[in-house]
Design goal:
Blueprint lengths: L6 E3 L5 E3 L4 H37 L5 H23 L7 H4 L4 H33 L11 H31 L13
Antiparallel strand pairs: 1-2
Helix pairs in contact: 1-2, 1-5, 2-5, 4-5
Length: about 190
Amino acid sequence: MSSSEIPVDLGQDEQVPADEPRAATALRRLNEGIGRVEIGVLGLLILLLITSTITDMLVAMATWPDEVTRYTVFFVAMMGLALAAQRQGMFHMDLVTRLFPARVRSGLRIATAIMVVVLCGLVIEYALRYREGSHKFTESYEIISVANAYLAAVIGFALVALHFALHAAIEVVYLARGKVPPDPPHGGH
């Protein structure tokens, strides 16, 4: 086995060839850095969720812990979705794609990523419209308005789109260099 064929462990159980193109390595590191930030934010959100839930149980007169708990659950879900996209842990129909050659699988991953980015863009657009429309209604809240709660969807789906775009860019860099990109961990799902 030559030194260019020795796989390099990048963490998260992901193996990539030692001769990975520099641009792909830079994109992969950017993706991993964003993932580390997401893990930190997720940890803080879970801590906030636990704190607000306990406060809600102990302080019967305040309504703000209920608001914080309700919306933090949504933010935690969106951050979990973004992390799943970052780690390529989203469910794909890979039973059929495993039958295709490696370059075709790569093309399918690129096409899927483009579709996901477009769909995330649509969700973001509608979330922003709903957020704008929610300002027209009067609501009673202490800390978090419904309008600000829509930011969870905007941020979450923007991160999902970013991760899919980065994964697609890595695939394109490999193909442009005439190399076959490695399959994602867990067989592409």
